[in-house]
## 1
Amino acid sequence: MSQRPNVLICGTPGTGKTTTAEAVAQQAGYNHINVGQWVAERGLHSGWDEEFNCWTIDEDKVCDAMEDVMAEGGNIVDHHGCEFFPERWFDLVLVLQADNTVLYDRLEKRGYNAQKIQENVECEIMMVILEEARENYKEEIVRTLPSNTVEQLEANVAQIVTWIREQDRMR
Ligand code: DAT
């Protein structure tokens, strides 16, 4: 327990991961790792998926690329899923949640087609990511956060930053 902690922010696309992670990283002076962006910019994929219209993530490449920076601590990692990262990387795993109608509107604004919106809203209703988090990390480090409103966003950011500062003091 010497380095700074690493925090994972996961959840269905549109729940607010990037917005939350950016604000937390900025306020805590931590590094924000947007995994999707790393995949695109650093070529950590095995080609373009025509069906889903996104890069097919090469999970081994992603983990190799992240290993050194994760070992340093002080990272806020932002990715929809959480199952392929080594469990030891994270001290806190947050699953953001949004109501169906809220999520629907955000994804529509993002320009997703009807099918993609439907798939993601179903993913949220079924709590797929929360299930994944519970299967892959110790129960006591997994927490859910509601992310429907700006007030909730601000409260979440404040809560995470407070947690980080406490951890930084203790280490
Ligand atoms: P994600 O990274 O999970 O895909 P995002 O951070 O890009 O999501 O947010 C999607 C959109 O919703 C973006 O326009 C910002 C907005 N948003 C995110 N969290 C919010 C919240 N708690 N309240 C209001 N708007 C929010």
## 2
Amino acid sequence: SDSSRVSRIQSMDWQTLQTEVASCQQCGLCQGRANTVFGVGDSAAPWLFVGEGPGYNENLQGEPFVGAAGQLLDNMLRALGIARGQRAYIANIVKCRPTDDNGRDRPPSAEEVAACLPYLQRQIALIQPRMIIALGKTAAVSLLGMSPETPVGQLRGRAHRLNGIPLVVTYHPAYLLRKPADKAKAWQDLCLALDHFSPE
Ligand code: URA
């Protein structure tokens, strides 16, 4: 059943979880995937960044944020004084690439998010980050359990909490590539996250 699957996931160690995800067939996104994208970085990292889902390059390489949006994310990490693989872990809401009928990236459906979210929730429980940055609407509303209609602008500017862990919402780096004028607001969001970050 669904609840026994979730409780099984909730008891997994990191390695078991990784193996489980690699062979997951819980939703249609498993069809035609090249790779699952579990995440990258230090599994005890104080900073957790959560995106939406793998795109074209991420599906091929099995690593999150390796394309153009990833370079902007790396700049955001640098602004916080952290580097990929050091004090940060990077993951997505869904671990397989969602595509539309034309083979283009699309946001994951509610069903796909529901099927995949237990994996990320287990990753969060194991990582125990000190701060979570939700990159864009899909990450924010999925993690906070809010309506998918909620605009990112309405979730920015304050520290939310997820199981006691502070969570700050900012724009998705792919959005910032299309709308660079909003980078100033993303910068404010990162400052807010630094303000609410407490090591231990
Ligand atoms: N966009 C995302 O949300 N995640 C990735 O891993 C790459 C692009």
